[in-house]
Structures are given as structure tokens and as C-alpha cells.
Write a structure and sequence with these properties.
By secondary structure, the protein is of the alpha/beta class. It is built from ten helices and seven strands. Helix 4 links the parallel strand 4 and strand 5. The longest helix has 26 residues. It is globular, with a radius of gyration of 18 Å.
């Protein structure tokens, strides 16, 4: 039986763990996962044996770790091609700005830049027409009513260098600045998807931004206060059933898996798709080609320096 190798970040909990389970339900699937703490991925390891699952160390907030992971993936593939790439890992910091050892704002680097560097490094190892999917978010769009309900006001692209340093709106409260940085990191992911799609060869990988919807109960709120974490994990999952744009990890993971395995949008690229598998417009800002090009050049320069 021939097998296919899929690469996934952010697979140890939430939608990523559900996604891994759906991919591995196919006995022909093998999975390579990047995790900050591979030894703690107990639920993930319980899905299948080591012959079909390789968990490698990856801290997306470290360019050294990101580069080492790319090398480990290359060795693991040993000439095989990746059937898909899913950049799902992410974090949301609502406190003061934090810079990484590389000098970049942590949300920007973990949610966007690390994935951009990985894609650049692993492009030669992707199969023709392989889906490359980045997890997006309605928070990037200032017109998204659900995101505004939770205090988000859209991504603030104020130039790649300033965004990379997390210098968006110094007049906002520390909490709002953290939310702005998260929304902006998701805007950057969508800008990059469009930029990559415009540059891809006809028979090359396909680039898609996937919005999984609002999913209370997942680990995204781990950086928030204890009260907010409690509400996120207990109260909001119940209320979300009546909210437009809300989903669940199993539902969104099922849609995500269909994209990664080519069962939907088999030839689509430069798309923004939501958890109902509808192609939806991303924000007007995300379609600005000048911003796409600026961010692409920034990420390309960082990748080349590694």
C-alpha cells in the first residue's frame, strides 16, 4: 500500500489533535508533527504507533528551532514528498509585548513568521499540487461581527518591520494591543497565502487560508487570566452554539482534513475557506498586493538568512 506523508504543526490539542486523528484514520497516512514538547504529546501518541507518527521538536518562536525542524523533516522524508503542509500552531498573548531571542514580537513569530520560514525551506519537498494551508481567523477582519463581539478590531498592518516588532497602536491598552497583535498575525498569514499563490508555478503547491471559526474550549486562551480561561472553557462553548461563525474542533477539523487530502478544492489556490467549506472573501486589507509583496519579501529575507 502506498502512503502519503502530511506535516502538521499545533497537533497536540484542540483542532490540531482532532485534525491529526482524522488524517490518521486513513491507514495510508503518515504524519510528521512539530511540537514544543514532544514528550508531552500523550494524546497524540495514543492515536497510532510510531511507524505512522513522527513527533519532532519545534518552537516556532525560535528561528534556530524552526531551521532545525526543517532539517529533521528533510532527513525523515529521505527523498519522499510531503502530501500536505498544515500550519496550525498559534498562540494569543494579551499581556505586555514579548520579544523572542530573534528580536521579533512573539505572536508574530509563532503564528506567522515561523510558518513562513518553514514553507520557504520545505517547498522543494512538497508534492505537485500539495495543499499548503495556514490557519486563519475572522479576527483579522474589522468587519467580522463575531470577532468584534470579543473585542477584536481587525489586523493592523503598519509595515512589515513595525508589525514584526509588535509596534501597532501604542495608544491602546496592553490587552487591546495583545489582541491586535493576534489579529494582525492572522492577517499576515492570509497576506502570505495570497503572495505565495501569485508566485506559484501552475503545477506547484496550492496555498489556502482556512478559518476554523470561533471555537471556545480550545487551548487558545491559555495566556489569558484564570477567569477568562474558565469562561472560555465552560460558559462560552455553550453560548457559542447560538453564535454565527462559531464551530467546534471536530467539525472544523473534518473540514480541514478534506482540504489537506484534496477532497475539496483540488485545484484551488489563493483561497480563503471557512469551516463550512465555503470560499469566502477575506478582508479588503488582506487583498492588498503591495502589503502582500512587502510581507513576502520580509519573510523571504528572514528565511534566506537562516
Amino acid at each position: 500500500m502506498s502512503s502519503s506523508v502530511h506535516l502538521l504543526t499545533g497537533a497536540t490539542s484542540g483542532i490540531g489533535l482532532e485534525l491529526a486523528a482524522r488524517l490518521l484514520a486513513d491507514p495510508a497516512c503518515r504524519l510528521v508533527v512539530g511540537a514544543r514538547r514532544p514528550e508531552a504529546a500523550v494524546a497524540l501518541r495514543a492515536l497510532v504507533g510510531p511507524d505512522r507518527l513522527e513527533i519532532l521538536p519545534l518552537d516556532l518562536a525560535s528561528l534556530a528551532s524552526t531551521s532545525a525542524f526543517a532539517l529533521s523533516v528533510e532527513r525523515h522524508l529521505a527523498g519522499e514528498k510531503l502530501a500536505s503542509f498544515a500550519g496550525n500552531a498559534g498562540l494569543q498573548i494579551t499581556g505586555p509585548r514579548r520579544l523572542t531571542a530573534d528580536g521579533y514580537e512573539e505572536t508574530f513569530q509563532a503564528n506567522f513568521l515561523g510558518h513562513a520560514v518553514l514553507i520557504e525551506r520545505l517547498l522543494p519537498h512538497l508534492a505537485p499540487a500539495a495543499p499548503v494551508v495556514l490557519t486563519a481567523s475572522g479576527t483579522h477582519d474589522p468587519a467580522d461581527r463575531g470577532a468584534r463581539l470579543f473585542g477584536f478590531r481587525g489586523g493592523l498592518f503598519v509595515g512589515a518591520d513595525r508589525v514584526a516588532r509588535g509596534e501597532l497602536d501604542p495608544a491602546a491598552s496592553p490587552k487591546q494591543q495583545g489582541m491586535d497583535r493576534y489579529a494582525t498575525s492572522k492577517l499576515c498569514a492570509i497576506l502570505q497565502v495570497h503572495a505565495l499563490a501569485r508566485r506559484a508555478a501552475t503545477d506547484g503547491p496550492r496555498f489556502i487560508a482556512f478559518d476554523p471559526g470561533l471555537m471556545p474550549g480550545t487551548g487558545l486562551a491559555r495566556e489569558r487570566s484564570s477567569l477568562e480561561r474558565w469562561a472560555w472553557s465552560t460558559v462560552l462553548p455553550v453560548l457559542a452554539r447560538a453564535m454565527p461563525g462559531a464551530s467546534t474542533a471536530p467539525r472544523s477539523a473534518t473540514a480541514y482534513a478534506k482540504i489537506l487530502t484534496g477532497r475539496v478544492f483540488p485545484r484551488g489556490t489563493g483561497l480563503h475557506v471557512n469551516f463550512t467549506l465555503a470560499e469566502t472573501p477575506s478582508s479588503r486589507d488582506s487583498r492588498r498586493e503591495d502589503w502582500q509583496d512587502e510581507l513576502f519579501r520580509f519573510a523571504e529575507r528572514v528565511a534566506l538568512e537562516r
